[in-house]
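ingest -> validate -> predict -> emit
validate: passed (alphabet ok, no gaps, 113 aa)
predict: started
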Amino acid sequence: MERSAVDRVVYLHGFRSSPASAKGRELAAAAAEWNADFSAPDLNLSPREADALVGSLLSPLSAQARRCTLLVGSSLGGFYALRAARAYGCPTAVVNPCLMPWDFVPQQVGLQT
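emit:
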């Protein structure tokens, strides 16, 4: 995708990370250089809530706006990005995506000993 075709960048962070992570800050700076809007929602929610939040960012956009929205997902955020790309048709880049979160996430939540 050409940089000029990107109107917005949506960063979806990984498990136990945040929008203010190093990747988020770097992507925000790149989006600013591209004169693109940037958003990075806090996905430290239940999976259903996180998925719904991502959908609420993309569903109001027109088909053309979605084609100019670059989703960037890291780890668990990569899983959400791939789901959103399929549902909304946005170009997507993922870094080390968590492809089977149902195998990983349950062991990482709750009381840890």
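The longest helix spans residues 76-88.
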